[in-house]
């Protein structure tokens, strides 16, 4: 008899979980969540800093050119 009640209890728990998942509100489909959140535009300080230079010098640059056809 104990095994029978344990099986019945497990079935009831599984059915309860299925019902809760089925009836829960689906937030992904709600109209309020379809609009993107307003994100302020980031402002970066572009003053000062370091001069940008290529990582190679003129000799290496010539060897990396594409072959002409």
UniProtKB/TrEMBL annotation:
Residues 52-62 have a biased composition (Basic and acidic residues). The keyword Membrane applies. The chain crosses the membrane at residues 6-23. Residues 28-41 have a biased composition (Low complexity). Keywords: Membrane, Transmembrane, Transmembrane helix. Residues 28-69 are annotated as: Disordered. This is DUF2749 domain-containing protein. It comes from Aquamicrobium segne.
């Amino acid at each position: 008899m104990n095994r029978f009640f344990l099986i019945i209890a497990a079935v009831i728990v599984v059915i309860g979980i299925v019902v809760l998942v089925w009836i829960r509100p689906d937030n992904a489909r709600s109209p309020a969540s379809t609009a993107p959140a307003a994100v302020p535009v980031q402002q970066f300080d572009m003053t000062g800093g370091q001069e940008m230079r290529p990582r190679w010098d003129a000799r290496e640059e010539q060897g990396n050119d594409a072959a002409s056809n």
